[in-house]
Specification:
The chain is an alpha/beta fold. The protein has 8 helices and 10 strands. The strands form 2 sheets. It has a 6-stranded mixed β-sheet with strand order 6-7-8-3-9-10, with helices on both faces. Strands 2-1-4-5 form a 4-stranded antiparallel β-sheet, covered by helices on one side. The longest helix has 17 residues. The structure holds adenosine-5'-diphosphate and magnesium ion. Magnesium ion binds next to helix 1.
């Protein structure tokens, strides 16, 4: 298991600073949920951890190693997106295998990994299908399959369930928590859904305008919000 540590992480696009020096320590095995209004910097923060966005200032450490200038593929991190980001021309098996192919993993190892992952996610019957012929929930499972097949230690989720209906969202939420535990992963999960945050999180990080307003357990934040912003966001009276 790996911890993730952000020391005064800053992001600026051109001259415009959007993340203003975030400090956060996620302990190994922890499930941390980032919440906050649209545009507050949640995705940017995840993308910096994944290496999809350059860090303007500060230090990112994963499992004790500084990651600032390590390429995304060499970080032990996988990210699951809201829009699935599946390859439409590849079937389910090849979508899941993609991350292993680009690392030149042996064919028999790839086949074994795809079999295992599709079993875990209930996709065994759909391996030959293209994404267009799957339901929303099945597509999201494929996206998760693609993330877990490399057995990363850190999972980043960017509003992975926002495109699903309420019933499926509840079901997938439980699956994500189960996977997190089963894989012994460290997870950082972005959502704007407070029920999702309250049910999934060991700790919730409330962001606003590129800063952290408060970090605490769901109960802490609900009972002792640091300010009216946090109170408003998590629904308890100020
Ligand atoms: P959230 O995920 O919390 O909705 P984002 O991290 O996507 O917020 O965005 C944070 C801020 O950074 C927003 O003001 C957004 O407009 C800005 N931003 C995001 N990506 C870029 C980019 N590539 N270039 C310029 N500004 C960006
Ligand atoms: Mg976002």
């Amino acid at each position: 298991m790996s911890g993730v540590r952000l020391d005064h992480i800053v992001k600026a696009y051109g001259g415009l600073q959007v993340v203003h020096g975030i400090d956060l320590e996620v302990t190994p095995g922890e499930f941390v949920v980032l919440v906050g209004p649209s545009g507050c910097g949640k995705s940017t923060t995840l993308r910096m951890i994944a290496g999809l966005e350059e860090i303007s200032d500060g230090t990112l450490t994963i499992d004790g190693t500084v990651m600032n200038s390590i390429a995304p593929k060499d970080r032990d991190v996988a990210m699951v997106f809201q829009n699935y980001a599946l390859y439409p021309h590849l079937n389910v098996a090849d979508n899941i295998a993609f991350g292993l192919r680009i690392r030149k993993t042996r064919k028999d190892e790839i086949a074994a990994a795809v079999k295992e992952v599709s079993g875990i996610l209930g996709l065994t019957e759909y391996l030959e299908r293209r994404p267009a012929d799957l339901s929303g929930g099945q597509r999201q499972r494929v996206a998760m399959g693609r993330a877990i097949v490399r057995q990363p230690k850190v999972f980043l989720f960017d509003e992975p369930l926002s495109n699903l209906d309420a019933k499926l969202r509840t079901q997938m939420r439980a699956e994500i928590k189960r996977l997190h535990k089963r894989l012994g992963a460290t997870s950082i999960y972005v959502t704007h859904d407070q029920v999702e945050a309250m049910t999934l999180a060991d700790r919730i990080v409330v962001m606003n305008d590129g800063r952290i307003e408060q970090i605490g357990s769901p109960m802490d934040l609900f009972l002792n919000p640091a300010n009216t912003f946090v109170a408003g966001f998590l629904g308890s009276p100020p």
